[in-house]
Structures are given as structure tokens and as C-alpha cells.
């Protein structure tokens, strides 16, 4: 607790003094909201959602909904949504951990609170006249293009079906955090390949 | 081969539909607006070679922000009024995510939860083959939303089996970010005809009010159809037919899909899979390559870069004012003001040349000429022009005037004479000699082409013709049918087509009975 206020106070004080190496704000005297030093986020949790937490700064994991088991179907669903491929059990296990961490947000009381969609909530959408402006010159359009064919961008064909999803040892992924190892074991495929080599 | 198979399956559908199956069709129509610039950037939308109409925002350059085009909102408001939609006080934009190379941001900005308009009603006439009586149908409009178009993809497929396949896609972003209005109807159509008449009527209205250029073949109007069959009143699984861009395709594809589903369902163990289907060049629906057996998750989220769009009162008034000054569309004018039937009014309004001709005719129309008469004689004129290899319809004002005058006096001329005069005026005015031509009334008066109604006069023609052609007269007297016709034609010919066919026949019969 005390540490948190100390951090906030020091950061505000630092911002208001002018000197080299000091934090600067666009307007002098503005508050700096990002602290200079990291602090334990659990402290913040405690301050904001005191009511929901039972034992002080510790988050009661039993209040959270259960982790869904990660299966081949879920992995392929996530890969399709993100267009990112998991390259190992470790990657999936990391994601699983992140999901577990994010689940803490379930404890936030959002009853009768409209979600915030934009920082321009009180504004109206501005509209613009239908007046043409010069489009980008062709060389600028292609400045970042890796491959160009005549005046077209070139991409790999779309709608490529994803490969089989039975690539990972699901047991390892789902148990990793209870095994207690900092890094998940290597992917099954690699192990198998190495085993064969041996 | 396919046609025959298709025809039989379609026929069985209609029979069986009565007993167990009923098609249910809903449409999604994407209308490309003809604004000068795109929906969220001021990049011009005019035609150009690939990737010449691209602003940084259109290719999702990081750091660029959407700037909403006011004209698009204006046109959407006009469209909402045309479709009698409810326009809420505000609407909002959403992101719909999917990965396609022609959608560079990885999402499309559209309106999902709070569209610009909803709950509309649109009435139109449905007519089928020539014999059907048209009926009025009202379609519920679920919602109307503004959204971005995607770019265009050219797929280059390499069929060689080698692993280093050369398959790739070429992308043109000229269309990316252009403004679309998507019109979503409730699943209230029961036949393909109902669906296509709706699209046809809507298209004419859209063009009239300058919302879109409405050229189907150029993709200004793209239609998706959701088709399912209810079995004994229970809703069935639907399939979605994507991206149809001609009226004929919509018609055949929907019918094909109904027939296909019917064939599956009439087999007791058959099951229709929920899927997206494309259309091949023959109008058959084929499964699309993409697999979306499980429902695609678009991860809709509110577009954070666009605040809420509040619809101001003066915007609404402006849209209404403009609709009023624009007046009714041509097909409505033909139908409601000139008395053309629903089928012809749509048909004429769809063909600019025909429309111009009919407009000219209506301008010169004497009070006695009805729409049906104009239509009847237009059909005759079409045959004449086809035979004489002239252009139909003739373009000159002069001809239109003579045409309506002739129709007005059609009761006083024989049919053959009228056709002759039409041919003469149509072919001569086509060759730009009309300056030399006199008015048809003067022409008729001068040559005395008026129909002979006096039976005594006609009888005289019979007597003369019979006397002149002794041999033929013998045959006619003996009851030879061919000779009878020959004699009749001879008579008409000598009278310079002033005797009506029936009159001539009656007169010969009278003569024979004497």
C-alpha cells in the first residue's frame, strides 16, 4: 500500500521539476499516470475491487470460472482466428496461462456499466464532404510490398485449409502449470524425430 | 444434358412443394454507392488501372484513421426513406474480422448492432411468365447498413502437382473501401421470381434516385440469397448463395438450389449441410472452396476510431426534400400515370431506348390512345423492324408522332394498311429522310387510304374481282378453301388494303350465298 502511494507521489514530483533526464509532459504541471517503477499489480487489484476479494491482496482462484481444457479443436479455432500458428506445446501453454491470468477480470463488478468502446464517447462522428483528394502515387502504394506483379500486390492463395491439429501433446499443455517446470517440454514432433535419430 | 435434368427436377419440385416442401428465400443486396470518394477516405472512386485509386487508409496503413463521407450517409438516408425504414437517432460502426488479402486491415468496417436504418417495408409487383396475373407483394426489410467494400482478387491457380506450387493471388485495392449499402430482407420470398422482381424494381429505383449506377454486370449490385426448404412447416437448414451479379443468375441459381435441396430432402435420410455456395457459369450452385462448417466467428467489436453517428434532423429533411424533387421513377410513372401494366413498365424502364421511345409516344399521345394499344403496336413495330433489319425502336421524334397518330386512328384504317404505313415511316425516318416526309394524316388523306366500311362498296369489289378472275371464281364457288383465301387477298390488294380482312371474307360469303 504505502509503496504504491510513494511511487505515485514520486512520479508526480519528478514530472513537475524541469531538468534533464526527468519525465516530461506535454503541458507543464500535468500528472504523470505511468509510474517510473513497476509495482505489483495485485496491489491495484486490491484497491479497485476490494469488495470482490476475500483474502486481502491474494486473488481467490476458486472464484474464477474453470479453465476450459485445451483440445485440438480449440487450438485450430484459435489458429484460424488469429492466423498465427502455435509452434510448440510451450506456446500453447503460455497462452493457457495468459487466459488464466485474464480470467481474474471476471471478478470486476460490471453490473449496470456500459462497456466503453471509444475514448470519443461524448463526441458525434464528424462527416466530411465528398471531395476528391489525390490518391497515393503508384510507387508509394507499393513501397512496402514484398512482391509486386505489374501493378498488383501478390499474396499467397487464400482459403488454404489448415493442417492436421494433432501436432501437440495435449496432456503436456494442460498439465504444464501443475508440473512446476518453468519451460514446457519440447514438442512431440521434435521429440519423436530426435528419438528416431537416436 | 444438364438443362434437361434440371428441368425435370424443377418440375417435380413444384408438384411436391404443394404437399410437403416450401422454399424460403431471404436476400442480402450490396449496393455500391456512386459517390465521388470512398466511404472513409477521400480517394476518388473513378475507374483506373489497378492500385491507382488507393489512399493510405484504404490499404490499412498503420496510423491512418477513417473519415466518414457525408454523401454516403445522405444516400443511406435516402435509401431508408425509399424502403420506408425506421431511422434511429444514432447508429454505430462495427468491425467484422476475417482474413482475406483483399481486406487489408483484417476487418471490414460495417454496421452490425446499430445500423443506420431498420424495419422497412417495400412493395412491388410480381409477375411471371406471360400468362400470370401480376400480384402485389410487400417485403420486410430487416436492416440497412453502411459498409466498406473489399478489393479485388485475381486467383492464379497452378495445377501442376509439384510441391513448389505457383498458386498465388493478385490484389487490386481500387475498390477497397468503396461505400456499400447492404440491404437485408427477411426470409419472405417463396419463389425465385419474387426475388428477381424485387431486385429489378429496387435497381430501377436506386438508379432513378442516383444512389448507385446500378449496373449489375459491373458489380454495382451484388446479391446473396439464403435458401432453405421448410418440411411440413418445420424450418430447414439454409444455404447461402454468394455474389450473384445478374438477374438471370439469381433466378437460375435459386431455382437450382431449391431443386438440389428438394432432391436431398425427398430422400428420407438426406440432410442439407449449412454452407456457402458459389454459382458457376451455368447458374448451378457449387460448394465454395472455403470450409465453414462450423460458424465463422467474425469477432464483431465496436469500431473504436469512429464515434457514434448521430442523425441530425436537417440531414433527414434534406434527404426527403431531394427524393421529392426527384419525383417518381420511370417505371412508377409508366405504371401509375400512363396505365402500363407492371410487367411492361419494368421491361420498358429497363431498356433506355425503349423508354425514350415510349416517353416520346406519351408526349404526342392523343387522349384516345391507351397504354395497351401502344404496347400492341410496339410489338408489331418490332416485328416490322426485325424483318426490314432496321433499328428498333426508331429514335426520331417525328416517327413517334406519326406512330401515335396512326394508333389514334387505327379504327379508321385497316390493319394491313396501318402496318404498311408503319413500315414506310419507320424505315424512312430511320434513314433520316423524315424532313422530306409529310405528316401521316396528310399522306393518308392525299392517297385516300382510309378504310372502306360501306358494304355496298365492298360488295362491288367482290363482284369485280370475281368477274375478272373467272377460273379462280369457279374454284371459290366449289368451296375450295385455298382459292377462297386467294380471292380475298386479291380483293384486298386491288382495294389498296382499304378493306379489312374480315370484311372481305364476309363480303365473299355474302356473294356466294346470293
From TrEMBL, chain B:
Some GO term, biological process aspect, for this entry: which one? mitochondrial translation
Which controlled-vocabulary keywords does the entry list? ATP-binding, Ligase, Mitochondrion, Nucleotide-binding, Protein biosynthesis
Q: What is its main location?
A: mitochondrion
Q: Which PROSITE patterns match?
A: GATB
Instruction: Give residue ranges for domain Aspartyl/Glutamyl-tRNA(Gln) amidotransferase subunit B/E catalytic.
Output: 24-317
Cellular localisation: Mitochondrion
User: What is the catalytic activity of this protein?
Assistant: L-glutamyl-tRNA(Gln) + L-glutamine + ATP + H2O = L-glutaminyl-tRNA(Gln) + L-glutamate + ADP + phosphate + H(+)
Q: What class of enzyme is it?
A: ligase
**What EC number(s) has UniProt assigned to this enzyme?**
6.3.5.-
GO molecular function annotation: ATP binding; glutaminyl-tRNA synthase (glutamine-hydrolyzing) activity
| Family matches, as InterPro entries | Asn/Gln-tRNA_amidoTrfase_suB/E, Asn/Gln-tRNA_Trfase_suB/E_cat, GatB, Gln-tRNA_amidoTrfase_suB_CS, Gln_synth/guanido_kin_cat_dom
One GO cellular-component annotation of the UniProt record comes to:
mitochondrion
Family of the protein in this entry: Belongs to the GatB/GatE family. GatB subfamily.
**Quaternary structure annotation from Swiss-Prot or TrEMBL:** Subunit of the heterotrimeric GatCAB amidotransferase (AdT) complex, composed of A, B and C subunits.
Extract the NCBIfam families matched here. Answer: gatB, PRK05477.1-2
The function of this protein is: Allows the formation of correctly charged Gln-tRNA(Gln) through the transamidation of misacylated Glu-tRNA(Gln) in the mitochondria. The reaction takes place in the presence of glutamine and ATP through an activated gamma-phospho-Glu-tRNA(Gln).
Q: What is this protein called?
A: Glutamyl-tRNA(Gln) amidotransferase subunit B, mitochondrial
To which species is this protein native? Caenorhabditis remanei
Amino acid at each position: 500500500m504505502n509503496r504504491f502511494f510513494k511511487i505515485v507521489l514520486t512520479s508526480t514530483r519528478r514530472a513537475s521539476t524541469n531538468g534533464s533526464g526527468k519525465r516530461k509532459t506535454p503541458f507543464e504541471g500535468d500528472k504523470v499516470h505511468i509510474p517510473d517503477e513497476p509495482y505489483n499489480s495485485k496491489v491495484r487489484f486490491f484497491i479497485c475491487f476490494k469488495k470482490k476479494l476475500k483474502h486481502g491482496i491474494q486473488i481467490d482462484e476458486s472464484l474464477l470460472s474453470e479453465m476450459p481444457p485445451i483440445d485440438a479443436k480449440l487450438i485450430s479455432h484459435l489458429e484460424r482466428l488469429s492466423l498465427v500458428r502455435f509452434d510448440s506445446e510451450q506456446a500453447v501453454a503460455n497462452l493457457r496461462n495468459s487466459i488464466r491470468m485474464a480470467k481474474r477480470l471476471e471478478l470486476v463488478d460490471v453490473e449496470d456499466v456500459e462497456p466503453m468502446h471509444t475514448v470519443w464517447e461524448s463526441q458525434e462522428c464528424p462527416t466530411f464532404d465528398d471531395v476528391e483528394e489525390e490518391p497515393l502515387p503508384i510507387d508509394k502504394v507499393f513501397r512496402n510490398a514484398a512482391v509486386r506483379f505489374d501493378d498488383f500486390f501478390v499474396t499467397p492463395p487464400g482459403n488454404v485449409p489448415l493442417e492436421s491439429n494433432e501436432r501437440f501433446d495435449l496432456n503436456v499443455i494442460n498439465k504444464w502449470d501443475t508440473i512446476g517446470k518453468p519451460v514446457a517440454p519440447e514438442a512431440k514432433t521434435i521429440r519423436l524425430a530426435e528419438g528416431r535419430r537416436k | 444434358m444438364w438443362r434437361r435434368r434440371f428441368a425435370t427436377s424443377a418440375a417435380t419440385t413444384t408438384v411436391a412443394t404443394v404437399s410437403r416442401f416450401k422454399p424460403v428465400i431471404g436476400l442480402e443486396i450490396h449496393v455500391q454507392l456512386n459517390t465521388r470518394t470512398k466511404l472513409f477516405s477521400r480517394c476518388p472512386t473513378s475507374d483506373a488501372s489497378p492500385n491507382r485509386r488507393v489512399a493510405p487508409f484504404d490499404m490499412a496503413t498503420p496510423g491512418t484513421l477513417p473519415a466518414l463521407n457525408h454523401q454516403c450517409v445522405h444516400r443511406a438516408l435516402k435509401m431508408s426513406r425509399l424502403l420506408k425504414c425506421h431511422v434511429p437517432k444514432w447508429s454505430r460502426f462495427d468491425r467484422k474480422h476475417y482474413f482475406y488479402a483483399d481486406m487489408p486491415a483484417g476487418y471490414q468496417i460495417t454496421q452490425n448492432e446499430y445500423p443506420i436504418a431498420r424495419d422497412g417495408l417495400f412493395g412491388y409487383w410480381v409477375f411471371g411468365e406471360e400468362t400470370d396475373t401480376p400480384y402485389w407483394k410487400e417485403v420486410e426489410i430487416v436492416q440497412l447498413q453502411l459498409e466498406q467494400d473489399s478489393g479485388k482478387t485475381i486467383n492464379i491457380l497452378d495445377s501442376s502437382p509439384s510441391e513448389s506450387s505457383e498458386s498465388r493471388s493478385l490484389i487490386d485495392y481500387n475498390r477497397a473501401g468503396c461505400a456499400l449499402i447492404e440491404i437485408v430482407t427477411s426470409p419472405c420470398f417463396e419463389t425465385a421470381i419474387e426475388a428477381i422482381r424485387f431486385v429489378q424494381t429496387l435497381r430501377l429505383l436506386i438508379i432513378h434516385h442516383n444512389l448507385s449506377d446500378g449496373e449489375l454486370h459491373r458489380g454495382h449490385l451484388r446479391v446473396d440469397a439464403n435458401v432453405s426448404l421448410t418440411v411440413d412447416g418445420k424450418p430447414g437448414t439454409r444455404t447461402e448463395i454468394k455474389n450473384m451479379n445478374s438477374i438471370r443468375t439469381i433466378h437460375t441459381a435459386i431455382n437450382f438450389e431449391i431443386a438440389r435441396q428438394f432432391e436431398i430432402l425427398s430422400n428420407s435420410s438426406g440432410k442439407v449441410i449449412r454452407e456457402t455456395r458459389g454459382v458457376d457459369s451455368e447458374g448451378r450452385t457449387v460448394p465454395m472452396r472455403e470450409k465453414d462448417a462450423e460458424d465463422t466467428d467474425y469477432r464483431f467489436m465496436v469500431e473504436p476510431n469512429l464515434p457514434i453517428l448521430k442523425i441530425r434532423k436537417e440531414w433527414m429533411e434534406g434527404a426527403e426534400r431531394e427524393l421529392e424533387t426527384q419525383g417518381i421513377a420511370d417505371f412508377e410513372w409508366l405504371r401509375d400515370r400512363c396505365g402500363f401494366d407492371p410487367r411492361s413498365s419494368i421491361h420498358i424502364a429497363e431498356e433506355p431506348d425503349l423508354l425514350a421511345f415510349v416517353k416520346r409516344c406519351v408526349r404526342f399521345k392523343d387522349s384516345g390512345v391507351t397504354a395497351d394499344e401502344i404496347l400492341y403496336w410496339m410489338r408489331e413495330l418490332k416485328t416490322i423492324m426485325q424483318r426490314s433489319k432496321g433499328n428498333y425502336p426508331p429514335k426520331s421524334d417525328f416517327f413517334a408522332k406519326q406512330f401515335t397518330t396512326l394508333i389514334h386512328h387505327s379504327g379508321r384504317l385497316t390493319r394491313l394498311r396501318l402496318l404498311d404505313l408503319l413500315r414506310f415511316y419507320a424505315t424512312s425516318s430511320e434513314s433520316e429522310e423524315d424532313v422530306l416526309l409529310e405528316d401521316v394524316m396528310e399522306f393518308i388523306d392525299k392517297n385516300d387510304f382510309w378504310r372502306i366500311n360501306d358494304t355496298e362498296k365492298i360488295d362491288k369489289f367482290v363482284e369485280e374481282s370475281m368477274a375478272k378472275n373467272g377460273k379462280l371464281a369457279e374454284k371459290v364457288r366449289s368451296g375450295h378453301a385455298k382459292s377462297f383465301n386467294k380471292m380475298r387477298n386479291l380483293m384486298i390488294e386491288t382495294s389498296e388494303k382499304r378493306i379489312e380482312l374480315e370484311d372481305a371474307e364476309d363480303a365473299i360469303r355474302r356473294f356466294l350465298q346470293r
